[in-house]
Amino acid sequence: MSSDEVHETDVEHLIARVYERDARRIFATLVRLLGDFDLAEDALHEAFAAAVTEWPRQVPANPRAWLVSTGRFKAIDALRRRSRFDANLQRLARRIDAAPDDDREIDERQLQDDQLRLIFTCCHPALPPETQVALTLREVCGLKTEEVAAAYLTTAATIAQRIVRGKAKIRDAGIPFAVPGDDELPQRLDAVLAVVYLVFNEGYSASSGASAVRVDLSSEAIRLGRLLVQLLSDAEVQGLLALMLLHESRRTARTDAAGDLVLLEDQDRAQWDQRLIDEGRALVQQAFASGRVGAYALQAAISAVHAEAQQFAQTDWARIVSYYDLLLVATPSPVVELNRAVAVAMRDGPAAGLALVEEILERGELLGYHLAHAARADFCRRLGRVEAARAAYERALELAKQEPERRFLAKRLQELAAELP
Amino acid sequence: MRFVCLGFFDEAKFEGLEPAKAQAIMEECLAYDAELRRGGHFAGGDALQSPRESVALELKDGQVAVTNGPYAETKEQIGGILMLEARDLNHAIALMSKHPGIQFGHWELRAVNEEMNAMIAERTAAQDSPNQS
Lengths: 421, 133
Fold this sequence. Notes:
The complex is a heterodimer of chains A (421) and B (133).
Chain A: H1 2-34, H2 37-54, H3 63-83, H4 87-98, H5 108-122, H6 129-140, H7 145-151, H8 156-172, H9 185-205, H10 217-231, H11 235-248, H12 274-289, H13 295-308, H14 317-330, H15 334-348, H16 350-362, H17 370-382, H18 386-399, H19 403-419
Chain B: E1 2-10, H1 11-16, H2 19-38, E2 42-47, E3 56-60, E4 63-67, E5 76-85, H3 89-97, E6 105-111, H4 114-128
Antiparallel strand pairs in B: 1-5, 1-6, 2-5, 3-4
């Protein structure tokens, strides 16, 4: 009697473990087989419910294949029952039933391909960006609608509506459940990486307001990044994961007890998570070894140089400038130019940085960007040009919107006032 | 799947082109249509007259009012439609991305509503069949 109980508990543990690890993968395969998100979701739960009653008698040799196969039969059953009233459902049931029964072939490779299909479908450019994000978190990561809503500080009804509309568009506009072909892959992959990075940044910048119920979006994004690295060998995929890990490694050091932002220069580097840094650096090396680095890998490389310096003064600015040079080629933008100017100032002194920033502003670019004026102010201050520094800080303060940044700029202005004759 | 491709074009942009250049793009469009036809993807299409010639009908105070087209002031207008036969949206995107008409404006791809069409077909069949009574 007691041995049976132990056995049952073992099976329950096994089912819980399979659910935890494989539910979303099985879901992706069911979406492919059934051609419908909602049908697949119901089938997934039916299959696990069946496992609870049947596995205690005999655990199948291949649990995942069993779950896929059972889910598919349950879906056909349900469609048949409903289809007495609806000719469309009858057709659908026949089509699914007629599909080749390759459930026994469900292997690791197949599950991975299906997951990749699911990601590309949820991040299809025909869907609005906020729908791409909601669908990815719901369908790929398996978050509950309420969890997605809480993470984005919005209502469950709003998220539910986005998800419903997204699924309807996938069905009605004919968005296929497919990985794009080689010719479109780079462009489509950009859209997927943008969704992952969007999720990460949302979690990273909102970390101060975190509450216990709030799902950690940064770790969801990192999970997605790890999944993509497993599924696709691509330098930008590795670069994005590296970038996220390296940012994440500084999470605790980047805010002080009052919740204020601590600049990289002033962070306590002992608080940086060395394990994440090592993983991030290894990924940067892999990306660079492939010889086809893009914007994510380059940003990760810059972040890795910072991570390698024990102290701010030991930062290898020459290397950082050389990565910015490449980044300007990959994604030319005045903001990248500004960041490069700051790195050049660290390497060659404030006069060199000031010349670059003034060149950008004289072209009429970044005039409304507070950080451009803040950088100019900083260079002027270091050159002893107090009056010019004051004017630039004031302009930056006019433009800055976030409270911690405004406090920082106001403090600098006060310090300057003390230096004025 | 069938997609209706709405070809929008900017009339000012079109008229600003050198006549020879405009003619060349038109020729490319026709050649590409022929290629779509050969592949079994071209299920029909029509070039439209200028939106200046369009007529709009709408209900105003219970009466049908005739005006000269409500959207004449917007920059891009529908210049033609193309019925496309494709496997799915990705296939449709791949086919229409290469259509030279995109140089005049933009394409909007709309899958046809199969459910609605099936219902219309059923009704039509019922009306056409001999009276049972």
